[in-house]
């Protein structure tokens, strides 16, 4: 099942969503740093020699502060949504129940099915993600090895053809001029 998830591309989408969520968390931290700097600047302006007061500068910082609060609320909501979506389910609860149910029903322990499923599901999904990571790494390595091999084969064929063309040119130069043009046309068509 894990191999099918990797081959279908769901694991790659999961990795991309994880990277995107980490980037959003980092942006949120940057916004918080900006807000802290603005607050410090406002406090310094308020506690200066002139006694602060309600001046134009201070009202501007207050309005930008309100905007940053709205931004931070929105970014918190975004990170929560991404964190919910960033989990990949490799083994479903129904699969676990189906496997456990037969053995527990025989022993008369039907009421343990749900707690056992809730206990085992996260651990099984975690192990499944590790297996998926290993499968993904090996398939990527295999693909790059195949690309290298085909690239080397193509390069060898092209080098051989270039060498043949150079040898043919040298051989044609030894022949009479009227034959040279005919042989050049023939070689261009055949190679």
From TrEMBL:
Q: One of this protein's Pfam families, by short name?
A: UFL1
Give the span(s) annotated as Disordered.
Answer: 28-78
What residue spans carry the Basic and acidic residues bias annotation? 28-39
Q: Which UniProt keywords apply?
A: Ligase
Domain E3 UFM1-protein ligase 1-like as annotated: residue spans: 151-191
- On whether Ligase is a keyword of this UniProt record, the answer is yes
Extract the GO molecular function terms from the UniProt entry: ligase activity; UFM1 ligase activity
Q: Does the keyword Ligase apply?
A: yes
An example of a Gene Ontology BP annotation on this entry?
A: protein K69-linked ufmylation
Q: Which InterPro entries match?
A: Ufl1, Ufl1_dom
May I ask which residue range the UniProt record assigns to the signal sequence? Answer: none
CC annotations in GO: endoplasmic reticulum membrane
Name this polypeptide is given: E3 UFM1-protein ligase
Q: Which gene encodes it?
A: UFL1
């Amino acid at each position: 099942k894990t191999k099918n998830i990797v081959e279908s591309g769901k694991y790659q989408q999961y990795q991309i969503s994880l990277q995107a969520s980490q980037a959003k968390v980092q942006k949120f931290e940057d916004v918080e740093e900006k807000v802290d700097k603005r607050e410090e600047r406002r406090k310094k302006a308020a506690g200066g020699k002139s006694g602060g007061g309600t001046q134009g500068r201070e009202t501007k910082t207050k309005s930008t502060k309100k905007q940053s609060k709205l931004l931070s609320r929105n970014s918190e909501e975004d990170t929560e949504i991404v964190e919910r979506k960033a989990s990949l389910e490799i083994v479903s609860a129904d699969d676990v129940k189906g496997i456990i149910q037969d053995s527990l029903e025989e022993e008369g322990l039907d009421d343990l099915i749900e707690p056992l499923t809730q206990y085992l599901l996260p651990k099984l999904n975690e192990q499944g993600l590790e297996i998926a990571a290993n499968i993904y790494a090996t398939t990527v390595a295999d693909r790059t090895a195949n690309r290298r091999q085909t690239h080397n084969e193509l390069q060898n064929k092209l080098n051989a053809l270039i060498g043949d063309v150079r040898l043919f040119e040298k051989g044609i130069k030894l022949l009479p001029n009227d034959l040279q043009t005919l042989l050049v046309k023939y070689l261009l068509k055949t190679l």
